Amino acid sequence: MDRREFVQSSAALMLAGCGYTEVDDMPQEFTLQPSPKRSGHGINVTVPSYREALWTPTSSGTATYGVNTFGRYAKIGRLVFIEGALDITTIGTGNPLHILGMPFSALQFGTISIGVATNLATAVVSLVGRIYGSQIDLWSRTAASSDPALNAILGDTTYVEFSGWYHTADAA
């Protein structure tokens, strides 16, 4: 089963879980665009503009990266799912606050989960990513602070894994 079939099956299961097995039975708030088509007893939903590819996260400037740096995304309509890792060898003149190079610019703010984060330039007690435009701002809290801030945390040998989703204005 490829990803498109999985998404179509998931939408049909969601509707079936709500007790709807026929398109005609769905109330207006469950109408999908484009409209689902009947296929036997199931519902076949056409997924708008599905695409997946790789991208390269960076911290800009003269930073150099290790072999574990990668980015992967899946885009369904205006919804973008991302995952990746930033493996910095040397930060150089790179930006220590942000992960750059997002595959699509965000329509609004979005939150990104940070998985593993090692060898940070500043000791932090919490770390979260927040998408702004086409970058992930790394908001962190140190032991001495009560509020998160944009602390310079990326440095030489820093490794950060991240994942999440956001909306983009690009529907194509």
Summarize this entry quickly.
This protein has one helix and eleven strands, in the order αβββββββββββ. With 172 residues, it is mainly β.
Describe this entry's structure for a reader.
The structure is a single chain. The chain has 1 helix and 11 strands; from the N terminus they run αβββββββββββ. The chain has one helix at residues 3-17, and strands at residues 37-39, 42-44, 50-55, 64-65, 70-76, 79-90, 98-100, 110-118, 126-132, 135-141, 159-167. The chain is mainly beta and 172 residues long. The radius of gyration is 20 Å and the shape is globular. The model is unreliable at 17-24 and 26-33 (pLDDT under 50). The protein has 2 domains: 3-47, no CATH class; 51-167. Strands 3, 4, 5, 6, 7, 8, 9, 10 and 11 form a 9-stranded antiparallel β-sheet that branches. The chain has a two-stranded antiparallel ribbon with strand order 1-2.
Shape: globular
The main β sheet shows up as:
9 strands, antiparallel
- What is the helix tally? 1
Count of beta strands: 11
For the CA atoms, what is the radius of gyration?
20 Å
Low-confidence sequence ranges: 17-24, 26-33
- Assembly type of the shown chains? single chain
Proportion in β-strands: 35-45%
Order of helices and strands: HEEEEEEEEEEE
Helix content: under 10%
* Average pLDDT, all residues: 80
Distance between the ends: 24 Å
Secondary-structure content class: mainly beta
Quickly count the domains.
2
